[in-house]
Amino acid sequence: MPLGVGFIVPPWNFPLAICVGLTASAVVTGNTTLVKPASLTPVIAYKFVELAEEAGLPSGVINFIPGDSSVMGDFITGHPLTRFISFTGSKDVGLHINELAGKKVKGQKWIKRVNAEMGGKDGIVVDETADLDAAAESIVSSAFSFQGQKCSAGSRAIIVESIYDKLVEKVVQLTEKLSIGNGEEDYSVGPVIDEKAYNSILKYIEIGKGEATLLLGGNPGSNEGFYINPTILGDADSNSRIMQEEIFGPVLAIAKAKDWEEAIEMYNNTDYGLTGGFFSSDNNRIEQAIERMYCGNLYVNRNCTGALVGIHPFGGFNLSGTDSKAGSYEYIKLFSQGKLYTQKI
Ligand code: NAP
Ligand code: MG
Questions:
Q1: pLDDT one-digit tens code per residue, 298-333
Q2: Counting ligands in written order, which one lies closest to the CA of residue 85?
């Protein structure tokens, strides 16, 4: 059976895909929704709602409520008639919603269900048996596509000592070739989303310069707008802030491990657990990596981004969220409740 009224809260990145995924999964299971788009991307969400209505969805099933989350977010999460919250966004906002939803208020008859998919500090591990050209390409595209503004962005690379210098050189060379400019004109790296993100990313780059060795970038781009040159910081300590905190921008931190096992330990040394990558040609190590790398979505010998709906159910461990595995059949069960009846005849 359906649950009831759901509060749908998507992030600004993937503003159509995530908004549609969160809303449609609630609707196909018979629920009604309040859809609050991110403040930066209300129009694309509006277009989706308009299409849903045009397609014949009865009014009242999707209620579009753009607005300032600091004014209405807590009101709706805390409302006694809100039955569930489907959130995708940052760790701090997800934890706040989860905490607030956990408090029963007057007139509330249920435990609110929260599905919260949050941030990541994803990383790619490379051992000495790996195809280094393939690893370099994957590290660069995982770190810098969409300017690193993806929850799955490979913002860390952890490389075994014996191939560290060689692979880092390849990563830097490939990154130097990325063209920077307006995304509409087919450049590889565009601007970041807004001034707030721009300032926050540049602040992290300054922190990184103090914690690690600047190998590339480290400054704003020369174009007018919120451009930041793809930045690579090497010899990073796995406990440093640039290896621990989600930056959500074009910043790659690289760390050196003595061997593949230490590299996996360093990969796991994070509060997050969304995506990971493992590059090796040793099947025993690959099996071990599948067992030991603690994340919801692990990719072997390929990029750590680009999950395909229906093929790679998506969701993270630890503070990356409730591991709801979006894009799968199991996902939609989260928006329904099972009723059993038995009849004696
Ligand atoms: P965000 O700042 O956490 O915002 C996400 C959504 O929450 C926005 O719609 C925001 O509205 C809303 N919000 C903020 N405070 C709220 C409150 N008190 N009550 C209810 N809603 C509230 O995240 P973002 O900057 O949009 O997106 C980037 C983050 O999302 C990154 O951390 C990224 O890793 C994560 N992400 C995760 C996944 C995944 O599947 N795990 C996928 C994509 C993105 P306003 O815009 O009005 O503040
Ligand atoms: Mg934000």
A1: 999 999 999 998 899 999 999 999 999 999 999 999
A2: 1
Distance CA 223, CA 208 (A): 23
Burial 214-244 (b: 16+ CB within 10 A, else e): ebbbbebbeeeebbbbbbbbbebebebbbbb
Give the active site residue among 50, 53, 54, 117. Answer: 117
Please give the share of the chain, as a percent, with pLDDT higher than 90.
Answer: 97
Residue in 182, 202, 179, 200 with CA at minimum distance from that of residue 191: 182
All structural domains of the chain, each given as residue ranges with its CATH number in brackets, are: 5-118+321-333 (3.40.605.10), 122-300 (3.40.309.10)
Q: How far apart are CA 78 and CA 90, in angstroms?
A: 19
What is the reported pLDDT for 185? 86
Q: Which two tokens stand for residue 4?
A: 């009831």
Average pLDDT over residues 118-147: 98
Q: How far is the CA of 244 from the centre of ligand 2 (A)?
A: 18
Q: Known catalytic residue: 50?
A: no
pLDDT the model gives residue 5: 98
Structure-token pair, residue 320: 């990356």
Q: How far is CA 214 from CA 135, 158, 228, in A?
A: 21, 16, 14
Q: Which of 35, 79, 90 to mutate to test the pocket of ligand 1 (most atoms within 8 A of CB)?
A: 90
Which ligand approaches the C-alpha of residue 248 most closely? 1
Of the pLDDT bands very low, low, confident and very high (cuts 50, 70, 90), residue 238 is very high
Alpha helix segments (H runs only) across 213-300: 241-244, 260-268, 283-292
151 is catalytic: yes
pTM: 0.97
Determine which residue's CA is closest to atom 21 belonging to ligand 1: 73
- Decide: 73 in ligand 1 pocket, CB within 6 A: yes
How does pLDDT run across 34-60, given as a tens digit for each residue? 999 999 999 999 999 999 999 999 999
Residue 128 Cβ inside 6 Å of ligand 1? The answer reads no
Above 90 in pLDDT, residue 184?
no
